[in-house]
Amino acid sequence: MQFEFDAVGQAIQEAARRFADEKLLPYYQSREAVDHFDRDLLKEMGDLGLVAPDLPEEYGGIGASGLTQGAVIEEIGRGDLNIAYIQLLGSLIGGVIAQFASKDLATEYLPKLAAGELIPSLGLTEPRGGTDAANLQLRARKDGGDWIIDGEKASISCANQADFVLVAARTGEINEGARGITAFLIDLNAPGVSRSNYNDLGSISVGRGSIWFDSVRVPDTRRVGDVGMGFIRVMQGFDYSRALIALQCLGSARASIDETWSYITDREAFGGPLAQFQGVTFPLAEADAQVRAARLLAYECLWLRDQGKPHTKEAAMVKWMGPKISVDAIHQCLLTHGHLGYSRDLPHQQRLRDVMGLEIGDGTAQVSKMIVARETVGRVAIQYAKK
Ligand SMILES: Cc1cc2nc3c(=O)[nH]c(=O)nc-3n(C[C@H](O)[C@H](O)[C@H](O)COP(=O)(O)OP(=O)(O)OC[C@H]3O[C@@H](n4cnc5c(N)ncnc54)[C@H](O)[C@@H]3O)c2cc1C
User: Fold this and answer.
1) Domain 232-386, second-level architecture
2) Ligand 1 neighbours by CB, cut-off 6 Å
3) pLDDT tens digits for 291-303?
4) CATH fold for domain 7-118
5) Taking CA 29 as the corner, what is the angle to CA 41 and CA 207, rounded to the nearest 5 degrees?
6) What share of the chain in percent tops pLDDT 90?
7) pLDDT at 383 over 80
Protein backbone atom coordinates (compact mmCIF):
# COMPACT_ATOMS: atom_id res chain seq x y z
CA MET A 1 0.00 0.00 0.00
CA GLN A 2 1.19 3.46 -0.88
CA PHE A 3 -0.63 6.47 0.57
CA GLU A 4 1.98 9.04 -0.47
CA PHE A 5 0.46 11.88 -2.54
CA ASP A 6 2.02 13.07 -5.75
CA ALA A 7 2.86 16.78 -6.15
CA VAL A 8 -0.64 17.62 -7.39
CA GLY A 9 -2.28 15.69 -4.53
CA GLN A 10 -0.05 17.47 -2.00
CA ALA A 11 -0.91 20.88 -3.46
CA ILE A 12 -4.66 20.15 -3.31
CA GLN A 13 -4.39 18.87 0.26
CA GLU A 14 -2.45 21.98 1.26
CA ALA A 15 -5.07 24.24 -0.39
CA ALA A 16 -7.86 22.38 1.44
CA ARG A 17 -5.99 22.72 4.76
CA ARG A 18 -5.52 26.46 4.27
CA PHE A 19 -9.15 26.93 3.24
CA ALA A 20 -10.30 24.99 6.32
CA ASP A 21 -8.08 26.99 8.69
CA GLU A 22 -8.91 30.40 7.25
CA LYS A 23 -12.48 30.16 5.95
CA LEU A 24 -14.19 27.28 7.75
CA LEU A 25 -12.97 26.52 11.27
CA PRO A 26 -13.33 30.07 12.69
CA TYR A 27 -16.96 30.34 11.47
CA TYR A 28 -18.15 26.75 11.97
CA GLN A 29 -20.44 27.63 14.87
CA SER A 30 -21.86 30.82 13.40
CA ARG A 31 -22.85 28.91 10.25
CA GLU A 32 -25.27 26.86 12.37
CA ALA A 33 -27.59 29.86 12.55
CA VAL A 34 -28.56 29.47 8.88
CA ASP A 35 -30.30 26.50 7.24
CA HIS A 36 -28.43 26.76 3.94
CA PHE A 37 -24.92 27.21 2.60
CA ASP A 38 -23.30 30.47 1.59
CA ARG A 39 -23.18 30.08 -2.20
CA ASP A 40 -20.21 32.44 -2.51
CA LEU A 41 -18.20 30.23 -0.16
CA LEU A 42 -19.01 27.17 -2.30
CA LYS A 43 -17.90 29.03 -5.43
CA GLU A 44 -14.67 29.96 -3.69
CA MET A 45 -14.07 26.26 -3.00
CA GLY A 46 -14.91 25.54 -6.63
CA ASP A 47 -12.44 28.17 -7.88
CA LEU A 48 -9.73 26.48 -5.80
CA GLY A 49 -10.60 23.12 -7.36
CA LEU A 50 -11.73 21.75 -3.99
CA VAL A 51 -15.25 20.57 -4.80
CA ALA A 52 -14.75 17.59 -7.09
CA PRO A 53 -11.12 17.28 -8.18
CA ASP A 54 -11.81 13.58 -8.78
CA LEU A 55 -14.08 14.31 -11.78
CA PRO A 56 -12.52 13.95 -15.23
CA GLU A 57 -11.00 17.11 -16.72
CA GLU A 58 -13.68 17.36 -19.41
CA TYR A 59 -16.23 17.76 -16.60
CA GLY A 60 -14.39 20.35 -14.52
CA GLY A 61 -12.23 18.12 -12.30
CA ILE A 62 -8.59 17.17 -12.71
CA GLY A 63 -9.07 13.40 -12.61
CA ALA A 64 -7.58 13.30 -9.09
CA SER A 65 -7.42 10.00 -7.21
CA GLY A 66 -9.89 8.92 -4.55
CA LEU A 67 -7.01 9.27 -2.05
CA THR A 68 -6.69 12.94 -2.97
CA GLN A 69 -10.41 13.56 -2.60
CA GLY A 70 -10.20 11.72 0.75
CA ALA A 71 -7.54 14.18 1.91
CA VAL A 72 -9.69 17.11 0.75
CA ILE A 73 -12.82 15.93 2.54
CA GLU A 74 -10.85 15.17 5.72
CA GLU A 75 -9.48 18.73 5.77
CA ILE A 76 -12.81 20.36 4.88
CA GLY A 77 -14.54 18.14 7.47
CA ARG A 78 -12.01 19.31 10.05
CA GLY A 79 -13.04 22.88 9.30
CA ASP A 80 -16.79 22.26 8.98
CA LEU A 81 -18.32 18.81 8.62
CA ASN A 82 -21.38 20.31 6.96
CA ILE A 83 -19.55 22.11 4.17
CA ALA A 84 -17.88 18.76 3.42
CA TYR A 85 -21.29 17.42 2.31
CA ILE A 86 -20.52 19.34 -0.89
CA GLN A 87 -17.46 17.15 -1.58
CA LEU A 88 -19.32 14.03 -0.48
CA LEU A 89 -22.36 14.61 -2.69
CA GLY A 90 -20.21 15.95 -5.52
CA SER A 91 -18.03 12.84 -5.62
CA LEU A 92 -20.86 10.33 -5.20
CA ILE A 93 -23.41 11.90 -7.53
CA GLY A 94 -20.88 13.46 -9.92
CA GLY A 95 -19.12 10.11 -10.25
CA VAL A 96 -22.34 8.27 -11.16
CA ILE A 97 -23.32 10.98 -13.68
CA ALA A 98 -19.82 11.10 -15.24
CA GLN A 99 -19.85 7.33 -15.74
CA PHE A 100 -23.42 6.58 -16.71
CA ALA A 101 -25.24 9.70 -17.97
CA SER A 102 -25.12 10.80 -21.61
CA LYS A 103 -22.20 13.05 -22.49
CA ASP A 104 -24.59 15.95 -23.12
CA LEU A 105 -26.20 15.63 -19.70
CA ALA A 106 -22.86 15.28 -17.91
CA THR A 107 -21.50 18.31 -19.78
CA GLU A 108 -24.56 20.36 -18.84
CA TYR A 109 -24.29 19.71 -15.07
CA LEU A 110 -20.85 18.55 -13.96
CA PRO A 111 -18.63 21.57 -14.74
CA LYS A 112 -21.07 23.74 -12.75
CA LEU A 113 -21.08 21.21 -9.91
CA ALA A 114 -17.25 21.22 -9.83
CA ALA A 115 -17.29 25.03 -9.87
CA GLY A 116 -19.45 25.08 -6.73
CA GLU A 117 -22.30 26.68 -8.69
CA LEU A 118 -24.76 23.77 -8.44
CA ILE A 119 -25.62 21.79 -5.32
CA PRO A 120 -26.50 18.16 -6.03
CA SER A 121 -28.66 15.81 -3.96
CA LEU A 122 -29.32 12.09 -3.90
CA GLY A 123 -32.88 10.75 -3.70
CA LEU A 124 -32.87 7.15 -2.54
CA THR A 125 -34.58 6.94 0.88
CA GLU A 126 -38.38 6.98 1.10
CA PRO A 127 -40.76 7.55 4.03
CA ARG A 128 -41.27 3.80 4.53
CA GLY A 129 -37.56 3.13 5.05
CA GLY A 130 -33.98 3.51 3.93
CA THR A 131 -32.19 0.32 4.99
CA ASP A 132 -34.33 -1.81 2.69
CA ALA A 133 -33.59 0.71 -0.05
CA ALA A 134 -34.17 -1.63 -3.01
CA ASN A 135 -37.82 -1.88 -1.96
CA LEU A 136 -38.55 1.68 -3.03
CA GLN A 137 -41.91 2.82 -4.41
CA LEU A 138 -41.47 6.20 -6.11
CA ARG A 139 -42.75 5.58 -9.65
CA ALA A 140 -41.52 6.59 -13.08
CA ARG A 141 -43.83 5.65 -15.99
CA LYS A 142 -43.08 6.15 -19.65
CA ASP A 143 -45.10 8.72 -21.58
CA GLY A 144 -43.85 9.02 -25.15
CA GLY A 145 -40.26 10.28 -25.00
CA ASP A 146 -40.68 11.39 -21.38
CA TRP A 147 -41.07 9.83 -17.95
CA ILE A 148 -43.65 10.94 -15.40
CA ILE A 149 -42.39 10.81 -11.81
CA ASP A 150 -44.73 10.48 -8.80
CA GLY A 151 -43.87 9.93 -5.15
CA GLU A 152 -41.82 11.15 -2.20
CA LYS A 153 -38.17 10.91 -1.29
CA ALA A 154 -37.43 11.40 2.41
CA SER A 155 -34.37 12.38 4.43
CA ILE A 156 -32.52 13.98 1.52
CA SER A 157 -29.40 15.99 2.37
CA CYS A 158 -29.65 19.52 0.93
CA ALA A 159 -33.30 18.93 -0.06
CA ASN A 160 -34.10 22.55 0.77
CA GLN A 161 -31.34 24.07 -1.34
CA ALA A 162 -30.11 21.58 -3.96
CA ASP A 163 -30.38 22.49 -7.63
CA PHE A 164 -30.89 18.97 -8.88
CA VAL A 165 -31.44 15.46 -7.56
CA LEU A 166 -30.30 12.07 -8.77
CA VAL A 167 -33.43 10.05 -8.11
CA ALA A 168 -33.84 6.29 -7.95
CA ALA A 169 -37.32 5.48 -9.28
CA ARG A 170 -39.23 2.26 -9.83
CA THR A 171 -39.72 1.62 -13.53
CA GLY A 172 -40.33 -2.13 -13.21
CA GLU A 173 -42.45 -4.22 -10.88
CA ILE A 174 -41.96 -4.26 -7.09
CA ASN A 175 -40.99 -7.94 -7.15
CA GLU A 176 -38.08 -7.10 -9.47
CA GLY A 177 -36.33 -5.48 -6.47
CA ALA A 178 -33.12 -3.66 -7.32
CA ARG A 179 -33.40 -4.65 -11.03
CA GLY A 180 -36.59 -2.65 -11.51
CA ILE A 181 -35.10 0.72 -10.54
CA THR A 182 -33.87 3.46 -12.88
CA ALA A 183 -31.95 6.66 -12.07
CA PHE A 184 -32.94 10.12 -13.36
CA LEU A 185 -31.39 13.54 -13.01
CA ILE A 186 -34.21 15.95 -12.13
CA ASP A 187 -34.01 19.71 -11.95
CA LEU A 188 -35.48 20.74 -8.60
CA ASN A 189 -37.08 23.84 -10.10
CA ALA A 190 -39.17 21.67 -12.44
CA PRO A 191 -42.98 22.03 -12.24
CA GLY A 192 -44.50 19.54 -9.79
CA VAL A 193 -41.50 19.44 -7.40
CA SER A 194 -41.93 20.62 -3.80
CA ARG A 195 -39.69 20.24 -0.75
CA SER A 196 -39.52 20.53 3.02
CA ASN A 197 -36.82 21.14 5.61
CA TYR A 198 -36.59 18.90 8.71
CA ASN A 199 -36.11 20.22 12.22
CA ASP A 200 -32.81 18.39 12.74
CA LEU A 201 -30.58 17.87 15.75
CA GLY A 202 -27.50 18.95 13.83
CA SER A 203 -26.10 19.74 10.38
CA ILE A 204 -28.58 22.61 10.18
CA SER A 205 -26.84 24.28 7.23
CA VAL A 206 -27.19 21.07 5.18
CA GLY A 207 -30.98 21.35 5.18
CA ARG A 208 -32.17 17.72 5.18
CA GLY A 209 -35.75 17.27 4.05
CA SER A 210 -38.31 15.56 1.83
CA ILE A 211 -38.83 16.08 -1.88
CA TRP A 212 -42.24 15.43 -3.48
CA PHE A 213 -42.75 14.71 -7.16
CA ASP A 214 -46.27 15.34 -8.43
CA SER A 215 -46.46 14.17 -12.07
CA VAL A 216 -43.04 15.65 -12.81
CA ARG A 217 -42.22 15.30 -16.52
CA VAL A 218 -38.63 14.23 -17.21
CA PRO A 219 -37.24 13.71 -20.72
CA ASP A 220 -35.62 10.32 -21.38
CA THR A 221 -32.38 12.21 -22.06
CA ARG A 222 -32.20 12.76 -18.28
CA ARG A 223 -32.09 9.07 -17.53
CA VAL A 224 -28.75 8.12 -15.92
CA GLY A 225 -27.68 4.65 -17.03
CA ASP A 226 -29.82 1.90 -18.48
CA VAL A 227 -33.42 1.24 -17.50
CA GLY A 228 -33.42 -1.08 -14.48
CA MET A 229 -29.78 -0.36 -13.56
CA GLY A 230 -30.25 2.79 -11.45
CA PHE A 231 -30.07 1.22 -8.01
CA ILE A 232 -27.05 -0.86 -8.88
CA ARG A 233 -25.15 2.16 -10.24
CA VAL A 234 -25.90 4.32 -7.19
CA MET A 235 -24.92 1.51 -4.81
CA GLN A 236 -21.60 1.11 -6.63
CA GLY A 237 -20.92 4.77 -5.82
CA PHE A 238 -21.54 4.04 -2.12
CA ASP A 239 -18.32 2.05 -1.80
CA TYR A 240 -16.57 5.33 -2.53
CA SER A 241 -18.80 7.67 -0.52
CA ARG A 242 -18.58 5.48 2.59
CA ALA A 243 -14.83 5.95 2.86
CA LEU A 244 -15.27 9.68 2.23
CA ILE A 245 -17.92 9.94 4.97
CA ALA A 246 -15.55 8.28 7.41
CA LEU A 247 -12.85 10.85 6.65
CA GLN A 248 -15.38 13.70 6.81
CA CYS A 249 -16.27 12.60 10.37
CA LEU A 250 -12.72 11.77 11.43
CA GLY A 251 -11.60 15.22 10.26
CA SER A 252 -14.21 16.74 12.56
CA ALA A 253 -13.02 14.54 15.44
CA ARG A 254 -9.43 15.57 14.71
CA ALA A 255 -10.38 19.22 15.24
CA SER A 256 -11.86 18.44 18.67
CA ILE A 257 -8.88 16.27 19.66
CA ASP A 258 -6.32 18.92 18.65
CA GLU A 259 -8.23 21.60 20.54
CA THR A 260 -8.47 19.36 23.61
CA TRP A 261 -4.73 18.49 23.72
CA SER A 262 -4.11 22.21 23.68
CA TYR A 263 -6.77 22.91 26.34
CA ILE A 264 -5.33 20.44 28.88
CA THR A 265 -1.93 22.07 28.74
CA ASP A 266 -3.49 25.45 29.66
CA ARG A 267 -6.23 24.57 32.11
CA GLU A 268 -5.02 24.01 35.66
CA ALA A 269 -6.26 21.93 38.60
CA PHE A 270 -4.51 20.93 41.83
CA GLY A 271 -1.66 23.33 41.14
CA GLY A 272 -0.74 22.32 37.61
CA PRO A 273 -2.01 21.71 34.08
CA LEU A 274 -4.65 19.02 33.52
CA ALA A 275 -2.12 17.32 31.25
CA GLN A 276 -0.24 16.07 34.31
CA PHE A 277 -3.08 13.64 35.11
CA GLN A 278 -3.12 10.33 33.31
CA GLY A 279 -6.86 10.18 33.97
CA VAL A 280 -7.08 13.14 31.58
CA THR A 281 -4.43 12.20 29.00
CA PHE A 282 -5.17 8.45 28.62
CA PRO A 283 -8.73 8.80 27.26
CA LEU A 284 -7.46 11.43 24.87
CA ALA A 285 -4.54 9.24 23.80
CA GLU A 286 -7.00 6.41 23.13
CA ALA A 287 -9.29 8.65 21.09
CA ASP A 288 -6.34 10.00 19.12
CA ALA A 289 -5.10 6.47 18.33
CA GLN A 290 -8.57 5.22 17.34
CA VAL A 291 -9.17 8.17 15.03
CA ARG A 292 -5.80 7.57 13.42
CA ALA A 293 -6.45 3.84 12.94
CA ALA A 294 -9.88 4.41 11.36
CA ARG A 295 -8.38 7.07 9.11
CA LEU A 296 -5.82 4.56 7.83
CA LEU A 297 -8.60 2.06 7.06
CA ALA A 298 -10.42 4.77 5.09
CA TYR A 299 -7.29 5.55 3.09
CA GLU A 300 -6.67 1.83 2.51
CA CYS A 301 -10.22 1.60 1.11
CA LEU A 302 -9.59 4.56 -1.22
CA TRP A 303 -6.24 3.16 -2.28
CA LEU A 304 -7.89 -0.18 -3.16
CA ARG A 305 -10.52 1.71 -5.16
CA ASP A 306 -7.87 3.71 -7.00
CA GLN A 307 -6.10 0.43 -7.88
CA GLY A 308 -9.35 -1.00 -9.25
CA LYS A 309 -9.38 -3.64 -6.49
CA PRO A 310 -12.44 -4.81 -4.52
CA HIS A 311 -13.13 -2.55 -1.52
CA THR A 312 -16.77 -3.12 -0.57
CA LYS A 313 -15.84 -4.78 2.73
CA GLU A 314 -13.39 -2.05 3.75
CA ALA A 315 -15.93 0.63 2.79
CA ALA A 316 -18.61 -0.97 4.98
CA MET A 317 -16.17 -1.44 7.89
CA VAL A 318 -15.07 2.17 7.87
CA LYS A 319 -18.60 3.55 7.29
CA TRP A 320 -19.48 2.06 10.65
CA MET A 321 -16.17 2.73 12.45
CA GLY A 322 -15.45 6.24 11.16
CA PRO A 323 -18.57 7.99 12.47
CA LYS A 324 -18.73 5.84 15.64
CA ILE A 325 -15.12 6.48 16.64
CA SER A 326 -15.58 10.17 15.82
CA VAL A 327 -18.70 10.44 18.01
CA ASP A 328 -16.88 8.73 20.91
CA ALA A 329 -13.77 10.89 20.49
CA ILE A 330 -15.73 14.15 20.33
CA HIS A 331 -17.79 13.10 23.35
CA GLN A 332 -14.55 12.51 25.27
CA CYS A 333 -13.27 15.95 24.21
CA LEU A 334 -16.51 17.55 25.40
CA LEU A 335 -16.17 15.86 28.81
CA THR A 336 -12.52 16.84 29.09
CA HIS A 337 -13.61 20.49 28.83
CA GLY A 338 -15.75 20.04 31.94
CA HIS A 339 -18.69 22.43 32.34
CA LEU A 340 -17.35 24.59 29.52
CA GLY A 341 -17.68 21.64 27.13
CA TYR A 342 -21.40 21.42 27.84
CA SER A 343 -21.88 24.99 26.68
CA ARG A 344 -22.90 25.95 23.17
CA ASP A 345 -20.01 28.42 23.27
CA LEU A 346 -17.61 25.59 22.42
CA PRO A 347 -17.85 23.59 19.19
CA HIS A 348 -17.71 20.03 20.60
CA GLN A 349 -21.45 19.76 21.22
CA GLN A 350 -22.12 20.89 17.64
CA ARG A 351 -19.60 18.45 16.20
CA LEU A 352 -21.19 15.67 18.26
CA ARG A 353 -24.65 16.50 16.88
CA ASP A 354 -23.37 16.92 13.33
CA VAL A 355 -21.27 13.73 13.20
CA MET A 356 -24.05 11.64 14.75
CA GLY A 357 -26.17 12.17 11.63
CA LEU A 358 -23.62 10.30 9.59
CA GLU A 359 -23.91 7.27 11.86
CA ILE A 360 -27.25 6.94 10.03
CA GLY A 361 -26.90 8.70 6.67
CA ASP A 362 -25.67 6.49 3.80
CA GLY A 363 -26.33 3.35 5.88
CA THR A 364 -26.42 2.54 9.59
CA ALA A 365 -23.91 0.50 11.59
CA GLN A 366 -26.17 -2.54 11.27
CA VAL A 367 -26.34 -2.47 7.49
CA SER A 368 -22.58 -1.87 7.34
CA LYS A 369 -21.92 -4.94 9.47
CA MET A 370 -24.36 -6.96 7.35
CA ILE A 371 -22.27 -6.04 4.30
CA VAL A 372 -19.04 -7.00 6.08
CA ALA A 373 -20.59 -10.40 6.94
CA ARG A 374 -21.93 -10.88 3.39
CA GLU A 375 -18.57 -10.01 1.87
CA THR A 376 -16.88 -12.49 4.22
CA VAL A 377 -19.16 -15.54 4.34
CA GLY A 378 -21.41 -14.90 1.34
CA ARG A 379 -25.14 -14.41 0.95
CA VAL A 380 -25.90 -16.86 3.75
CA ALA A 381 -25.35 -13.82 5.98
CA ILE A 382 -28.49 -12.12 4.56
CA GLN A 383 -30.77 -15.11 3.95
CA TYR A 384 -33.65 -13.32 5.67
CA ALA A 385 -33.98 -11.15 2.58
CA LYS A 386 -35.43 -14.09 0.64
CA LYS A 387 -38.18 -14.87 3.16
C1 LIG B 1 -27.89 13.05 8.29
C2 LIG B 1 -28.58 12.17 7.29
C3 LIG B 1 -28.40 12.42 5.93
C4 LIG B 1 -29.05 11.61 4.98
N5 LIG B 1 -28.93 11.91 3.66
C6 LIG B 1 -29.59 11.17 2.73
C7 LIG B 1 -29.54 11.52 1.35
O8 LIG B 1 -28.90 12.50 0.94
N9 LIG B 1 -30.24 10.77 0.47
C10 LIG B 1 -30.97 9.66 0.86
O11 LIG B 1 -31.56 9.01 0.01
N12 LIG B 1 -31.04 9.32 2.17
C13 LIG B 1 -30.38 10.04 3.11
N14 LIG B 1 -30.46 9.72 4.45
C15 LIG B 1 -31.29 8.58 4.85
C16 LIG B 1 -30.46 7.40 5.33
O17 LIG B 1 -29.73 6.82 4.27
C18 LIG B 1 -31.41 6.42 6.02
O19 LIG B 1 -31.88 7.09 7.17
C20 LIG B 1 -30.72 5.13 6.40
O21 LIG B 1 -30.47 4.36 5.26
C22 LIG B 1 -31.60 4.29 7.36
O23 LIG B 1 -32.91 4.19 6.91
P24 LIG B 1 -34.12 4.57 7.90
O25 LIG B 1 -33.77 5.84 8.55
O26 LIG B 1 -35.37 4.52 7.11
O27 LIG B 1 -34.10 3.45 8.99
P28 LIG B 1 -34.82 2.02 8.91
O29 LIG B 1 -34.47 1.38 7.62
O30 LIG B 1 -36.25 2.18 9.23
O31 LIG B 1 -34.08 1.29 10.10
C32 LIG B 1 -34.33 1.65 11.46
C33 LIG B 1 -33.32 0.93 12.35
O34 LIG B 1 -33.43 -0.48 12.15
C35 LIG B 1 -32.19 -1.02 11.75
N36 LIG B 1 -32.39 -2.09 10.76
C37 LIG B 1 -33.17 -2.07 9.65
N38 LIG B 1 -33.10 -3.23 9.01
C39 LIG B 1 -32.25 -4.02 9.72
C40 LIG B 1 -31.76 -5.36 9.58
N41 LIG B 1 -32.09 -6.13 8.54
N42 LIG B 1 -30.90 -5.83 10.51
C43 LIG B 1 -30.53 -5.05 11.57
N44 LIG B 1 -30.96 -3.80 11.75
C45 LIG B 1 -31.80 -3.29 10.84
C46 LIG B 1 -31.41 0.15 11.13
O47 LIG B 1 -30.02 -0.07 11.22
C48 LIG B 1 -31.89 1.31 12.00
O49 LIG B 1 -31.11 1.38 13.17
C50 LIG B 1 -29.85 10.53 5.42
C51 LIG B 1 -30.01 10.29 6.78
C52 LIG B 1 -29.41 11.10 7.72
C53 LIG B 1 -29.65 10.85 9.18
Assistant:
1) Up-down Bundle (1.20)
2) 121-125, 129-131, 155-157, 203, 208, 357, 360-364, 366-367
3) 999 999 999 999 9
4) Butyryl-Coa Dehydrogenase, subunit A; domain 1 (1.10.540)
5) 65
6) 91
7) no
Q: CATH 1.10.540.10: which residues of the chain? A: 7-118
Return phi, psi of residue 366, to 5°: -60, -50
- Where along the chain do the CATH 1.20.140.10 domains lie? 232-386
- How far apart are alpha carbons 373 and 315 in whole angstroms? 13
- Most ligand 1 atoms within 8 A of CB, residue of 360, 383, 386 to mutate: 360
The predicted pLDDT at position 385 comes to 55
- Spatial CB neighbours of 219, under 8 Å, sequence gap ≥ 6: 145, 146, 147
Judge whether 159 and 85 are in contact, CB under 8 Å. no
Please give the pLDDT value at position 2: 78
Amino acid (1-letter code) at residue 266: D
> What rounded mean pLDDT belongs to the chain?
96
Cα(87) to centroid(ligand 1), Å: 21
Over the stretch 201-245, which tens digit does the pLDDT of each residue have? 999 999 999 999 999 999 999 999 999 999 998 988 999 999 999
φ/ψ (deg, to 5) at 71: -65, -35
Report d(CA 142, CA 227) in Å as an integer.
11
Domain 122-228 has what CATH class?
A: mainly beta
* Packing angle of the helix pair 103-114, 85-100 (nearest 10 deg): 160
